[in-house]
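Late entry, beta-D-fructofuranose complex.
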Amino acid sequence: MEGQGEHHKPKKILCVGLVCLDIISVVDAFPQEDSDSRCVSQRWQRGGNASNSCTVLSLLGSPCAFMGSLCAGPVASFILEDFQRFQVEVHSPHERAACVTPTSLVISSAATGSRTILHMNSFIVDDFSRRSIDISRLAWQTTGQTPSACCVVCPSSGSRTVLLADTNIPDVTCEDFSAVDLSAFKWIHWEGRNADEQLKMMAEVARYNAASPPQHRIVVSVEIEKPREKLYQLFPHADVVFVSKDVARHLGFHTPQSALQGLRGRLRAGAVMICPWAEKGADAVDADGTLLHSDAFPPERLLDTLGAGDTFNAAVIHKLANGCRLQDALTFGCRVAGTKCGFHGYDGIA
Ligand code: ADP
Ligand code: FRU
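Prediction complete; structure with ligand written out below:
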């Protein structure tokens, strides 16, 4: 059946990239350097572009999986627990199963109140539920620290300022990726990070696709968000490329249209490129060179723009993976991302 993997499970969307802890302070006004002030509120949230995009995909109803690095400890425990909110699967009307650590499965029964823990050597959990993020491909590292970020969200200006610490944990490698059964996926999205390794992973998918019939080929997307020269080698290796306004500006473009026109030559034949531009909405260039645009959908009250881009990417992928046209996906992406800016976090999306 189309869109179904082995054993007739629906094929998933895999997002490869960062998961981190976001410590988010909401402020009335951005603090002065060397000042000591109170914030309006503060919370911990699971963050990271690929991880946020999985959150949004799952809220929109796309079965998805996350692959990224964690290192055991209190921060990783917080992150796992949060992932767990998306891992409830119904085995029977009264029984729920969820993964809590890479080696155990907890089955709790709403009917009896019982809680059973099964320890497993391998971490295999079927997730048929609509809102689930499969984390069985997490790459557990034995060195470094789970990434974390201090985020200042300022509703009065719409800004979100992020200070990220993510450099002392190894990233997912091609070797980790080689262990993944690609037949479970219909789409793989990379957040551009360790580009040299990611190129090798993409080459693996290209080999898999070359040996597969058209209906089993995996669509590849990549986000080039940070203005880092190394990431630019990823442009010609995806079917869908998300390029940020930061990268566009860094490369000398002042509008999304000029960026798309100027960068289109870097894509492979048949690929499309998408460029979100905050309150100006988003633009795209189709495989035949047609430029597309969607206005933004500003919320009634701007509250939280942290992760707007990750939300946009997920919403666009959700639509494209379900066969929608690029223009419809672009408009949907702006609508969902704009709505998200009207509340804190992601839970209000669906
Ligand atoms: P990032 O969060 O990566 O910086 P952008 O700022 O480009 O990403 O925003 C991604 C998408 O989110 C935009 O295309 C737009 O649809 C939506 N968005 C972002 N900021 C706003 C805003 N202030 N008002 C309405 N929509 C917004
Ligand atoms: C939002 C985000 C945050 C994280 C930061 C990392 O796009 O993923 O969750 O702290 O960006 O760059």
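The longest strand covers residues 20-26. Will revisit in the morning.
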